[in-house]
Amino acid sequence: MNIQRTAGALLAVTLFITAAGAQGSAPTPAKPTVVQVNLNEWTMGLESMKVTGPVTFAVTNTGKYPHALAVEGKIGGKDFEISTGWLKAGEKTTLTIDLPAGTYNAYCPVPGHEGKGMKSDLTFQ
Ligand SMILES: [Cu+2]
């Protein structure tokens, strides 16, 4: 539900989002670059990554605890946040996003995990 609400709010700034399980009818402007992300204790596997959108994050939980990929930041002065659902050990999903150039925060929204190091800058160039 959080993803749906965020996607609606961001249509005004022409952000294109799809997520596994989300109902999306927005056109895909370009073929996304696929980036593998392995979530593990306690890293996002992103290492201050720079990407050019649109990007499909192919997310795998290679750890033993639940993890997820969330991206937050500001677009036009407004806060936004999108996230995959929680992935159990071994589970995979995808998250396709295209954001204006800028640096955003990627982190794991499972309580306590960000503080243990599951966070990274994520720059769209
Ligand atoms: Cu986590």
Describe the structure.
- This protein has one domain (2-124): Immunoglobulin-like (Sandwich), CATH 2.60.40.
- The chain is built from one helix and nine strands; from the N terminus they run αβββββββββ.
- A five-stranded mixed beta sheet has the order 3-9-8-5-6. Strands 1-7-4-2 form a four-stranded mixed beta sheet, covered by helices on one side.
- The chain has one helix at 2-10; strands at residues 16-19, 33-39, 49-51, 55-61, 70-75, 78-83, 92-98, 102-107, 119-124.
- The protein is globular and about 35 Å long.
- 7% of the residues lie in helices and 42% in strands.
- Copper (II) ion (CU) binds next to loops.
- Residues 67, 108, 110, 113, 118 line the site of copper (II) ion.
Q: What are the secondary-structure elements, in order, as H or E?
A: HEEEEEEEEE
What is the domain total for the residues?
1
- Architecture per CATH nomenclature, i.e. the level-2 architecture: Sandwich
* Ligands bound to this protein structure: copper (II) ion
Task: List the main descriptive attributes of the protein structure presented here.
single chain, 125 residues, mainly beta, Immunoglobulin-like, five-stranded mixed beta sheet, four-stranded mixed beta sheet, 9 strands, 7% helix, 42% strand, globular, binds copper (II) ion
